[in-house]
Amino acid sequence: MNVIQDFCKILRKRSAEHSEAMNRLHDLSGIMASILRQELDSMIRAIYLLSIADISERTRLIEQTLNGEIWTVSTPKGKLKKVTDREMVEQSNKLQGWTLSVYKFGCAFIHFSSFHDYSVSNPFYALSSDEQDDILKHMRYYHGGPLSDNPSFSEIASYFPRVFEKISTNLEHYIKSLELNEVEKIA
Predict the structure, then answer these.
(1) pLDDT class for 91, splitting at 50, 70, 90?
(2) Source organism's superkingdom (predicted)?
(3) 30 and 115 in contact (C-beta within 8 Å)?
(4) Alpha carbon distances (Å) from 61 to 15, 48, 82
(5) Which of 66, 149, 163, 182 is deepest in the core (most CB within 10 A)?
(6) Are the beta carbons of 74 and 11 closer than 8 angstroms?
(7) Residue 80 β-bridge partners
(8) Residue 150: per-residue pLDDT
């Protein structure tokens, strides 16, 4: 097995575990949101790798993961700099159009925040109106709702399994593309 296959095997294993967790935790909305964020993390990494046309550079980054190292890339001055989550999310957002909003929303559940008090206040309202609009637009387009412009958190959370399935399906597509050494054309 080569390093790309090893990396893809790990992505699939992580995704399968996320899927099982989503099925078991159907009534724990905060945990479901953090799992969405973790699945999205895998997807944005796959997209970032697919945006790299140089397969040897892509392989180098994959090897860094397998060696427990942080991804680094060369700057124009020849120094190495860390690849940030922000850079990967922005790259993915160019292709998907919704990843930035979902990633930001999910991050609030990964890190301790006031979002965890969702039984008292709706964390969706903590997002900017543009981010709320983006999320609602994509949820309605891909998942048929929520219909309300001011959905409750429980209404939003009821769509988490469908959102997870969409991310997971996209991730599998990108994993197959990685295995085939394809390149995603990202504007």
Answers:
(1) confident
(2) Bacteria
(3) yes
(4) 20, 10, 11
(5) 163
(6) no
(7) 74
(8) 92
Q: At what angle are helices 160-179 and 29-50 packed, to 10 degrees?
A: 20
* pLDDT given for residue 43 in this prediction: 92
Full DSSP string of the chain? --HHHHHHHHHHHHHHHHHHHHHH-TT-HHHHHHHHHHHHHHHHHHHHHHT---HHHHHHHHHHHHTTPPPEEE-TTS-EEEPPHHHHHHHHHHHHSSHHHHHHHHHHHHS--GGGGTTTS-GGGGS-HHHHHHHHHHHHHHH-----SS--HHHHHTTHHHHHHHHHHHHHHHHHHHHTT------
Euclidean distance between CA atoms 132 and 44, whole angstroms: 21
